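Sequence, structure tokens reproduced for reference:
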Amino acid sequence: QLVAYEVKRMHTEEGNKQKILRHIKELAEKLYKNENPYPAVTMHKVQKPTEGCHLRLHQKPFPRLDEGTVQWIIDQATAKLQTAPPAVKAEKKCMVPSGPPIAAIMERNGNALANSARRLEVVRNCISYVFENKMLEAKKLFPAVLRAMKGRAARHCLTQELNLHVQQNRAVLDHQQFDFIIRMMNCCLQDCTAMDEHGIAAALLPLVTAFCRKLSPGITQFAYSCVQEHV
């Protein structure tokens, strides 16, 4: 019933946070009442007497109970139990519409995975173009790469691809290549979260000490000098 009746309402409430919160509270109350149809009965606990309490001085004697009063209380409780409604809630049979087809849900998930794969492919292609000195092609893909850095998978892909080029002894770059790599690293670190501190940021540490460019004979600038503002 939740899937059948509430999907359209969710679509109409998109963008209105107050309606969404009110709707969530209503659903929570319905779910709670469904799981707890009858309010819990409070039970009064009688404390167990401590050891040796009967040996204390000035112990008040237990009052004598009236047999008629006790029997009247028992009869009243028995009558209430006999007239009480059954504890099991009667089930109401009803026809529930099918709701949105499962194929549509699977299609949305498939589209999301396809979009993620395309973003990773764009990151790989852009890095390849940079190291192959195809700067015009790299410039075309560069804005899409910067947008893709908001996803953790793309940031992880960047560190893997750069690490492969370091292993291939391609860490010494010209000025244009160095600028592209630094901008990608800065964007990657800028979009990192606290969860990436020991993952993405740690993976970039050896890379920023490997990539460099020659400024003049005997003077080399390493990438870590350009990403130091990220704490």
Observations:
- Residues 2 and 27 are 9 Å apart (CA to CA).
- Helices lie at 2-12, 17-35, 67-83, 102-131, 135-148, 152-167, 175-190, 200-208.
- Residues 102-226 form one domain.
- DSSP finds eight helices and three strands in the chain.
